[in-house]
Design goal:
The complex is a heterodimer.
Chain A (H helix, E strand, L loop, with lengths): L7 H26 L3 H19 L2 H7 L7 H31 L7 H6 L2 H52 L3 H17 L1 H20 L6 E2 H19 L3 E7 L7 E2 L5 H11 L7 E10 L4 E9 L12 H14 L4 E7 L2 E9 L7
Parallel strand pairs in A: 2-4
Antiparallel strand pairs in A: 1-3, 4-5, 5-7, 6-7
Helix pairs in contact in A: 1-2, 2-4, 3-6, 4-6, 7-8, 7-9, 8-9, 9-10
Chain B lengths: L2 H4 L1 E6 L3 H11 L5 E7 L2 H11 L3 E5 L7 H8 L4 E6 L3 H9 L3 E4 L4 H14 L7 H7 L9 E6 L2 E6 L3 E7 L2 E6 L2 E6 L2 H7 L5 E5 L2 E4 L3 E7 L3 E6 L4 E4 L1 H14 L1
Parallel strand pairs in B: 1-2, 1-3, 3-4, 4-5
Antiparallel strand pairs in B: 6-7, 8-9, 8-12, 9-10, 11-12, 13-14, 14-15
Helix pairs in contact in B: 3-4, 4-7
Classes of the chains: A alpha+beta, B alpha/beta.
Chain lengths: 357, 253
């Protein structure tokens, strides 16, 4: 894509700059040759406009000869040669045009009075061409720096993506070791349940492992992941963990970032249920809001406001919030509320139906 | 040997039934150890230990009500303590210095026997006082959010924001909160180091004050001052304490 021909605004700016330059030359010319102002204007401006477009061809040679890694002579040589050829060609056109002008009775003899100025015109042609070359090199440098900036930005975005993927894939070691401990307890007392728990844990791990590469998954898949997570926790906590679900079927095929809800449920267990002697309940709700094309998801759980502080507290919530920000900007919302002995996390996401990744 | 050889009385503390089951099962091999109580949370643990005075305690760290460290802080260390935890770097650091042993879940019979062996040799030995252990488990820049106090077999939890001031009384500190005073076996210096210096200040050899409660400072006698709290309690301020207090209050404006 030509940087000036391909952009109307730039072309206008280029032509204005060219006009200012040629106006100066125009005064030099009439002072020198003594032709009438009107004749010179009618002759000189179309000629310069024509040359302005000719000079735009310098772009292609500039792109072919990069300024970095080319010696000064290697740079100047070809461009100077081009300038001479182009300018020579321009002078030929100028002569032809002068002859055409002098065909009018009123401007008879114009070609003779202008003929003396041809060496000057030639020199100006060479200079203008070289000036355009310089302009193109400036544009090239600008483009290169913008590209570098964009590369850097892309790299930053990629790094962040990688970080998020790592966060997503991270299984809480506390959960893992405690589950293994429960399995080890069950191996002697209840081998059947030990096997069930092994399978539930394996299901959960397998599901999280595969998610690293995916940007979005259907809500249904996220829910099944949560179910295998809760199947493990249910064996650990027994009757202390009560689960309740209200899922609008219209939300099941909506796409959500993977592992966006699981950390919320994990939090509800680790910071809610685990701190309650008598246990408590977790309620998961998903509803579809047709008027705004949004999916609203709520996770509520009971918790003990006086529970001892646990490490890692809040990290899960911060990650979820950050990931929503990165993915949706202000099209998604995230809220956390503590109300007496109830903890509530609510998120609202745009409802995307098909797998657009 | 005497009584200890005949019987070791043990208490198991863990909020997960299956985790208690593992310990119970591994102890079945040891007729000399008698399980006198099983507790599912910190409150129960404090009560059981205070009443039953066991020789050996198996203690989980993350539990409802009180965590393992808080339990230890309240019951003292007149027994051998074996911690059991799934994953906790801070705890590991503390155990290296103070605990009889720690078990990382999941653990098997071999590791358990090793811990039990250590506990037996250390039984009756001198163990470091609990507040010290508590302090060493805190990362630098991390301060207590609450103080736990035992009153007989009952436990009071004082959130830091509700602590008005603390007064040293021999081996105890009296903690003033919501018009009541709670006695705790701890030195005032150890308490001071566990409190956020931006919120609490040692104004006197025997007093730490919650800065938010201070309304006025008045001169008192030749060299000393008195701090007046929002509930009009008057606390003595020493000369060096006055310097520190002025500096903090001036900074706050």
């Amino acid at each position: 894509m030509h940087p000036i021909l391909g952009d109307k605004k730039r072309l206008a700016l280029y032509l204005i700059a060219w006009l200012i330059l040629t106006e100066l030359l125009f005064y030099v010319l009439i002072y020198h040759s003594g032709v009438s102002k009107l004749a010179a204007a009618l002759y000189f401006f179309p000629l310069c406009l024509f040359y302005a477009f000719i000079c735009l061809s310098a772009w292609y040679s500039c792109r072919g000869i990069p300024i970095d890694g080319t010696s000064f002579a290697g740079l100047l040589g070809p461009h100077l040669l081009a300038a001479i050829i182009v300018s020579f060609f321009w002078v030929l056109v100028a002569k032809a045009l002068a002859r055409a002008v002098s065909n009018f009775d009123r401007y008879r003899g114009f070609d003779q009075s202008i003929a003396r100025e041809m060496p000057l015109l030639f020199a100006i042609g060479v200079l203008l061409y070289l000036l355009t070359v310089a302009l193109f090199y400036v544009l090239l440098a600008q483009e290169a720096s913008r590209e570098a900036e964009q590369h850097e930005m892309e790299a930053r975005v990629l790094a962040r993506d990688a970080e998020l993927r790592a966060l997503k894939a991270q299984v809480n070691p506390h959960f893992l070791f405690n589950s293994l401990h429960s399995i080890s307890a069950l191996t002697s007392s209840d081998p059947r349940r030990a096997r069930e728990m092994c399978i539930a844990l394996a299901d959960f791990l397998r599901a999280t492992l595969g998610l690293g590469e995916k940007a979005l998954i259907p809500l249904e898949e996220e829910l099944s992941l949560i179910h295998s997570f809760l199947a493990v926790e249910k064996i650990r906590f027994g009757s202390r963990l009560q689960m309740e679900e209200q899922i609008d079927p219209a939300t099941l095929d909506c796409m959500v970032p993977p592992l966006i809800l699981q950390p919320l449920v994990e939090n509800a267990v680790a910071h809610g249920i685990a701190n309650l002697t008598e246990g408590g309940h977790i309620r998961l709700q998903a509803s579809y809001r047709a008027e705004t094309a949004r999916v609203a998801i709520d996770v509520d759980n009971s918790f003990d406001p006086e529970a001892p502080a646990r490490r890692r507290n809040g990290v899960g919530l911060v990650n979820v919030r950050q990931r929503l920000d990165t993915r949706y900007g202000n099209h998604a919302s995230f809220s956390v509320e503590k109300n007496g002995e109830q903890f509530h996390v609510g998120l609202v996401l745009p409802a995307e139906r098909k797998a657009i990744t | 040997m005497t009584q200890a050889e005949a019987r070791i009385r043990a208490v198991i503390v863990d909020d997960e039934d299956l985790a208690r089951q593992v310990v119970r099962e591994l102890l079945a091999e040891h007729p000399e150890i008698e399980i006198v109580s099983e507790c599912a949370n910190g409150f129960e643990a404090v009560k059981a230990v205070t009443e039953l005075k066991p020789d050996l305690l198996f203690l989980d760290i993350q539990m409802p009500k009180l965590d393992g460290f808080e339990v230890l802080e309240l019951i003292g260390t007149d027994m051998a303590i074996i911690f059991a935890t799934a994953y906790d770097q801070h705890a590991l650091r503390a155990f290296e210095v103070h605990a009889v042993d720690y078990l990382l879940k999941p653990f098997g019979a071999e590791r358990f026997e090793q811990a039990l062996g250590r506990a037996k040799t250390r039984l009756g030995g001198k163990l470091p006082p609990a507040p010290e252990l508590r302090a060493s488990t805190r990362a630098p820049g991390e301060y207590s959010e609450r103080i736990v106090v035992r009153d007989g077999t009952r436990v009071h939890i004082i959130p830091i924001a509700k602590l008005d001031y603390a007064e040293s009384q021999d081996d105890y500190v009296a903690l003033a909160s919501e018009g009541r005073k709670h006695l705790k076996q701890q030195t005032i210096s150890s308490l001071e180091s566990s409190l956020d210096p931006l919120r609490f200040l040692r104004i006197h050899r025997s007093y730490i004050v919650n800065l938010e409660r201070v309304t006025k400072i008045e001169p008192y006698g030749k060299d000393t001052h008195v701090a007046i709290l929002s509930d009009s309690t008057r606390l003595p301020v020493s000369r060096s304490g006055y310097g520190r207090l002025r500096a903090v209050l001036d900074r706050k404006g």
